[in-house]
UniProtKB/TrEMBL annotation:
A molecular function (GO) term: oxidoreductase activity, acting on CH-OH group of donors
Name of the molecule in the record: Short chain dehydrogenase
Gene3D superfamilies in the record: NAD(P)-binding Rossmann-like Domain
Gene Ontology BP, a term: secondary metabolite biosynthetic process
Presence of the UniProt keyword Oxidoreductase in the record: yes
Assigned keywords, A-Z: NADP, Oxidoreductase
Family designation: Belongs to the short-chain dehydrogenases/reductases (SDR) family.
Alphabetized InterPro entries for the sequence: NAD(P)-bd_dom_sf (IPR036291), Sc_DH/Rdtase_CS (IPR020904), SDR_fam (IPR002347)
């Protein structure tokens, strides 16, 4: 971005109507950004959203929150590239368990691990031509509707209570803002020297 602030910059947030995505949307809006909320799973739809909505004014930041496969982030970035503003910012969301592993979530963990590899590769491929930075925020358990549904199961609640009580930073579940504020920083111009990074936002559950 040409300036430090995201004020009056254009940001696409996928999955921006709920959970962490909603928190990211609100955080960027609070910082003055113009927000486009989107969740599209096909290439045609992603191109339609990106091209139709931002052709006139360009894209300065993309935060990809919801992605159960790599199609969404790849297609969205491809569709947006012709409209990138100066020094665009791309922020992906992964999970602490992409590197630590999590039983019963094979597809999810594999997707998030691939997202982290995609982040590193894009950081190399897009840096010189677009002066883009691409980073990935990796939360642990977050207090969202999905979390509330998870702990309705007594077995799951017992398992996660142990994890939460042993979180180094504090014995609590993360709030949405704990990740959204990091995304806010990574979307700003002052994050210009941070790219290809996996930023842990999990209270110390995973240090690597």
């Amino acid at each position: 971005m040409a300036t430090e602030s995201v004020a009056r910059k254009n940001a696409i947030v996928t999955g921006g109507s709920r959970g962490i995505g909603k928190g990211i949307s609100l955080e960027l809006a609070k910082r003055g950004a113009n927000i486009l909320l989107a969740y599209q799973s096909s290439r045609d739809q992603a191109e339609e959203v990106a091209a139709a909505e931002i052709r006139r004014s360009g894209v300065d930041a993309i935060a990809v929150e919801v992605a159960v496969n790599l199609k969404l982030p790849v297609f969205l970035i491809q569709a947006s590239m012709p409209y990138f503003g100066k020094m665009p910012r791309i922020v992906h969301l992964s999970s602490a368990y992409a590197r630590d592993g999590q039983s019963g979530c094979l597809a999810y963990v594999a997707c998030k691990g691939a997202m982290e590899s995609l982040t590193r590769s894009l950081a190399r491929d897009l840096s010189h031509n677009y002066q883009a930075t691409i980073n990935c925020v990796c939360p642990g358990p977050v207090n969202t509707e999905l979390w509330a549904a998870t702990i309705e199961d007594p077995h799951e609640k017992e398992k996660w209570d142990f994890v939460v009580q042993n979180t180094p930073a504090a014995a609590r579940v993360a709030e949405v803002d704990d990740s959204a504020q990091i995304v806010g920083f990574l979307a700003e111009g002052r994050s210009r020297w941070t790219t290809g990074s996996l930023v842990n936002a999990n209270g110390g559950l995973l240090f690597v």
